[in-house]
From TrEMBL:
The gene is Btg1_1. SMART domains: btg1 (SM00099). This is BTG1 protein. It comes from Galbula dea. PANTHER family: ANTI-PROLIFERATIVE PROTEIN DOMAIN-CONTAINING PROTEIN, B-CELL TRANSLOCATION GENE. It comes from the Eukaryota.
Length: 159
């Protein structure tokens, strides 16, 4: 399973690293090490819980969650580079769910945020999945702040 889950794990670790980079105050070398430690922790954690033939099996076990409690895998990787849980809570969204499944990695910020797909690959022998309509609206959503955007939030783009 190690080779099979490389892309999904790499995508998930890169996403969390990107969130930390966007928050600022952490050096590139620390971020690089964090990403490596997180990838290693995920690989180890998922080793016997990766089922490409039944991708949803074990999904709860593979879910990375911050909900006023720090996900232990993120906490462990951060600890390896000297970041405390307190500092992590300042840098990352207070509510983040990241699903790392065979052929798909997706996330949600806030309890009622949109589910956004980071990585999607057709299953071998399966039909290609339809692209999600919400994909474009999700693209930059992780930049919008620490929790769910308010319902009347408007984003303007000027060139």
């Amino acid at each position: 399973a190690g080779e099979a889950m490389r892309t999904e794990i790499s995508t998930a670790a890169a996403f969390v690293t990107r969130l930390l980079r966007a928050a600022g105050g952490i050096g590139e070398e620390q971020l690089r090490r964090f990403r490596e430690y997180l990838q290693e922790a995920l690989r180890e954690h998922y080793k016997h819980h990766w089922f490409p033939l039944v991708p949803s099996k074990g999904s709860g076990y593979r879910c990375i969650r911050i909900n006023h409690k720090m996900d232990p895998l993120i906490g462990k990787a951060a600890g390896m580079i000297g970041l405390s849980h307190e500092r992590l809570f300042q840098l990352l969204p207070s509510e983040l769910t990241l699903w790392v499944d065979p052929f798909e990695v997706s996330y949600r910020i806030g309890e009622d945020g949109s589910i956004c797909v980071l990585y999607e690959s057709p299953q071998p022998g399966g039909k290609a999945t339809k692209p999600l309509e919400s994909r474009t609206s999700c693209k930059e959503e992780w930049r919008i702040g620490r929790s769910s955007p308010s319902k009347n939030y408007m984003m303007t783009v000027s060139s």
